Amino acid sequence: MKLLTVLLPIALVSAVSAFENTVPCLAWSPKRFTSVVEGSHDQYVVLQKDAIDTILAPFGSELCQTKVVAIVDQPEIHTSDFAQYSDALESIKKHSSEAATRIQHQYIDKHVDIDQLVGRIAQLCDSTLAIVNPQGISKDEIYSGNSNTVALLELPSAHSEMTLAKNDALVDDLIKAIKENVGDDYAVILTSSAAKAPLHSKRSTFEKRAPYNVNAPIFQKYQLFNTGVFMAIAVVAMFIGIVVIGITWLGSIQTPARFDSKPKRN
């Protein structure tokens, strides 16, 4: 019991750390891919070395029959951001939820090698590579009309909700430009080339989040509650619950007040 009480919190803390340093991958297409199970998603952690194979495997050979495969690199995004910044990612969530094919890998260890991902698709499908300029997305640079294309859009790091909202608008512009060229014959793979830095690794995290008004109340100056803090509180609460239950069980043990002597033999 004592050993379990010690090991369980350690295992929970390790699990929290493992899920924290991960990136998501969200892929969708208006086309129906017969090899993809509807609404498929994985909630386990995909190892970095297996990331590209895991991302591409559900599409099978049908991916090469798609005119445009758009790779969107959104550095420093985490799965929890889709819930925390739901309004900022409205267009991405709308396009993916309305798609005929949708695949989601919530946790990929560390990051996805975008160059290797683009290179793998281009090699498998003999595709043309198009680097999309986020400053001005043009439909002419996305699809040449001769062969299928891999279009790469590299977005700024997701440092704030405002940045995510701007990047969401860029993804929406990209999809509109693709539709003007090829209609619904496209697929989008959104993932990240860099995981969000853990909160404890940033020495000046609170300084960066503080406003210019130094006289403002503390709850306006700093973000004191986030996903990492919530997970830590949950682990501590579970640990305290285990300790309380253990102490209660130990306290309920009662020993006899006296022992009866053995009957004497005549």
From TrEMBL:
It is found in: Endoplasmic reticulum membrane. The keyword Thylakoid does not apply. Pfam families: Ac45-VOA1_TM. It is a single-pass membrane protein. The chain crosses the membrane at residues 229-252. Residues 223-260 form the V-type proton ATPase subunit S1/VOA1 transmembrane domain. The keyword Metal-binding does not apply. Keywords: Cell wall biogenesis/degradation, Endoplasmic reticulum, Membrane, Signal, Transmembrane, Transmembrane helix. Residues 1-18 form the signal peptide. GO terms for biological process: (1->6)-beta-D-glucan biosynthetic process; cell wall organization; fungal-type cell wall biogenesis. One of its GO terms (cellular component) is endoplasmic reticulum membrane. Its main location: endoplasmic reticulum. Belongs to the BIG1 family. This is Protein BIG1. It comes from Umbelopsis vinacea.
